[in-house]
Specification:
Elements: E1 2-6, H1 13-22, E2 26-31, E3 41-44, E4 61-64, H2 75-93, E5 100-105, E6 116-117, H3 128-146, E7 151-156, E8 158-160, H4 164-175, E9 181-182, E10 188-189, E11 191-193, H5 194-206, E12 213-216, E13 222-223, H6 224-235, E14 242-243, H7 245-252, H8 254-260, E15 265-266, H9 269-272, H10 282-291
Length: about 290
């Protein structure tokens, strides 16, 4: 297949592009600032610019992964990239693709309380960041329908692995004694190893799983405190202390801390019928990351 991947130099996108290429597909990567050593066709594009251009080819699948992270505090940039970039991309590929896969996050479910989140759970974002992500999804849903383009949406949990935020924000900060748990870590999070995310995305494309939604997490939601303490144990260092939530918000931003400290438990039953998870829980995944450092 001919496949376009936005965010192809990112944590997930670079691994997805590599796996698709390894599986024999012709991959074109859209990158912004950071280049990648992948031996694929690459195009440096600013999706936030309405005059962007993508290669004039037809694609069997377009994976839209490019987005600024919840750690971004600039609301204008969040909207310009995450919503505007989606609109601009769609306008340039609507006559060039047979299928779009849009990557979102669990934040669009808001605060589900004690309910276990699955694909039937209502979308009720409670942060600006997540609302923009949902607005982009709604735009795609309407315009894909109007243009008869199949769309599948994936909701990722906390995606970790070698490199990325887990290395820079968790492991390195733990080792330097700089990491503190907002709100004492007493809230559930749903994690997923990046390799399993890639397996899920590849399966969606190769099995042509159109017009679906998937929650992509492992099968073991865990208190954030337990996740961090387990990581500390694997690193052989002491467990970190906590930080009051108002201080955490001052440092990391209110939206990000609200997303992080909202308990969310998920069911991965649907996606688990399509792939076999290499890391069914954070324990196997964290151990693998640290053993390969």
């Amino acid at each position: 297949m001919k496949i376009l991947v936005t965010g192809a130099s990112g944590f997930i996108g670079s691994r997805l592009a590599a796996k698709l290429s390894e599986n024999g597909h012709t991959v074109t990567g859209v990158i912004h600032e950071h280049d990648t050593n992948l031996s694929i066709q690459k195009h440096k594009v600013d999706l936030a610019n309405a005059s962007l251009s993508v290669p004039n080819e037809r694609y069997d699948v377009v994976f839209h992964l490019a987005a600024v992270t919840p750690m971004e505090k600039d609301k204008d940039k969040i909207k310009k990239v995450n919503y505007g970039g989606t609109v601009n991309l769609f306008n340039h590929i609507k006559n060039k693709t047979k299928f779009i896969v849009y990557a979102s996050g669990l934040g669009v479910f808001g605060d589900p309380g004690n309910k276990v989140v699955d694909e039937t759970t209502p979308l009720k974002p409670h942060t600006y960041y997540a609302q923009v992500r949902l607005d982009a999804q709604r735009f795609l849903e309407k315009n894909c329908k109007d243009n008869s383009i199949p769309l599948t949406v994936t909701y990722f949990g906390e995606v970790y692995g070698n490199g990325g935020w887990f290395e820079s924000q968790i492991i390195q900060r733990l080792q330097k004694g700089m990491f503190k748990l907002p709100k004492s870590g007493e809230y559930y999070r749903s994690f997923v190893h990046v390799d399993d995310v890639v397996s899920a995305l590849v399966a969606i494309a190769e099995k042509n799983t159109i017009n679906e939604t998937f929650v992509v997490t492992d099968s073991n939601p865990v208190l954030f405190k337990e996740f961090i303490n387990y990581t500390s144990d694997e690193l052989g260092i002491k467990h970190p202390g906590s930080i009051p939530i108002f201080l955490a918000k001052a440092v990391m931003g209110g939206d990000f801390v609200k997303l992080l400290t909202t308990s969310i438990k998920t069911s991965n039953t649907k996606i688990a019928k399509m792939i076999q998870f290499q890391y069914p829980s954070y324990r196997e995944g964290v151990k693998a990351v640290i053993s390969h450092r």
